[in-house]
Amino acid sequence: MAQEKNIKTWKTDMTLLALVLLLVVFGLVMLFSTSEYNGRVRFHDSAYYFKKQLFATALGLLAMYVVSQMDYHFFVKLAPAAYLLAMVLSTAVLLFGQEINGSKRWLNLGPLSFQPSEFAKAAVILFLAWQIGRTKKSTTGFWFMCRTMLTLLPIVGLVGSNNLSTAIIILGIGVILIFISNPKYAQFIGLGAAGISFVAVFLAAESYRLERIAIWRNPEKYEKGFQTIQGLYAIGSGGLFGRGLGSSLQKLGFVPEAQNDMIFSIICEELGLVGASVLIIIFGLLLWRLCVIALHSRDLPGTLICAGIMGHMAIQVILNIAVVTNTIPNTGITLPFISYGGTSVVFLLGEMGLALSVSNHNQQISAYDRE
C-alpha cells in the first residue's frame, strides 16, 4: 500500500524543469537571431543553424525525459563502462577525427558529426560519483585526493591534447567533487598547485596556446584578435537595453562564427545589459536549484551527480562570459544551452535528466518516510 502511495506522490521538479526549458527557448531564439546572416550567406537558408539546433534540442529533450524517468543508480553502475568508452572515443578523435578551424574534435557518424568531449564530461561526473561512492576507506586523506585525480589523468590527457578548455572543465569537475567529499580544506592548496602546474605544462606544450595569451594581453596587435575586438564592440554598443532583438550589426560578418562561442556578445548588443543580466540570473537560479537537489539527496552518488552537473554548468558559463569580455584568453568554450552545438545541447539536457532523476528519487523516499 505504501508503495502505491509513493507512485502517486512522485512528481517532477517543476522549478528545475521550468528553468531548463526557459534556457532552451531563449537559446533557440537567440541562435536564430545570431545565425540568420551566416546561414543565408553560406547555405542560402537563414534558418540553417536554427533547424539543426532545433533537431538536436528535440533529441536532447527526449533524452532528458527518458533519463529522468529512470533510477540514476542504473547510470552510476554503468559509469566505468562509460568512462572507458569516453577514452576510446577520445582516442578515435586523435586518429580519425575531422579537423574544423584547426581543431580536431569531431567524429563523423554518417551524415552526423559527434563531439566525444561532450560525452566525456557526463561520463566523468558519473564515474567520479561511482568511484567516490564506493570508497570503503576515509575520503579525508591526501592519498584519496591523489588517487581520484590520477584516475582522471588519462581522459584529461586525451581530451586536452586537442581541446584544452574541456580538459580544464573535467579537472574542475574533479576538484569540486573531491572538495565536496573531503571535509579538510588545507589539502586543496597542494591540489590547486598541482592543477596550475598541469595547466601550465599544457599551455607551454603548443605554441598556439601561448599565442592566445599574447592576443589576450594585446588583441589590437594581432590579426587573430579581430574576433575579440569585434565582440567587445558588440557588448559596448548594446548599452543598457540593446539595439533590439534581431538588430545586431556585429553579427553581419564582423564577429566570426557569432553563433558559437561569441553568442553572448550578440546577446549584449541586441538585449543590452538588462537582457544579459537576466540570462545570468537564470543561470544562477539553475545552479541554485541543482545545489538544493544535491543537498537533499539521500545518498552520496546522488549528491555527487548533482554537484558535478552544477560544477560543469558553473565553470562553463563563467569561462565563456570571461572569454567574451576578454577577462581571460580565448579558450573556445560554448555557452550552455545558448551556443550552437548539437552534441553539447543533447548531453547537457541528458545531465538535466540525471538531476531530475535524483530529485524524483528524493521525493519518492520522502513519501515513503511519511508512511
Describe this protein's structure.
The protein is mainly α. It has a three-stranded antiparallel beta sheet with strand order 1-2-3, covered by helices on one side. A hairpin with a 2-residue loop joins β1 and β2. The N terminus and C terminus are likely disordered.
State the gist of this model.
With 371 residues, the protein is mainly alpha-helical. The chain has helices spanning 2-9, 14-43, 48-68, 72-77, 79-96, 116-133, 142-160, 164-181, 187-205, 207-217, 226-238, 263-295, 300-324, 342-370, and strands at 98-100, 103-109, 112-114.
| Strand segment count | 3
Question: What is the overall shape?
Answer: globular
Q: What's the helix count?
A: 14
Give unreliable regions as ranges.
1-9, 366-371
- How much of the residues is beta strand, in percent? under 5%
Oligomer description? single chain
Structural class: mainly alpha
Biggest sheet architecture: 3 strands, antiparallel
Helix/strand order, N-terminal first: HHHHHEEEHHHHHHHHH
User: How helical, in percent, are the residues?
Assistant: over 70%
Q: What strand line-up does the widest sheet have?
A: 1-2-3
Question: Roughly what is the average pLDDT, rounded to an integer?
Answer: 84
Q: Distance between the terminal alpha carbons, to the nearest Å?
A: 10 Å
Rg from Cα: 21 Å
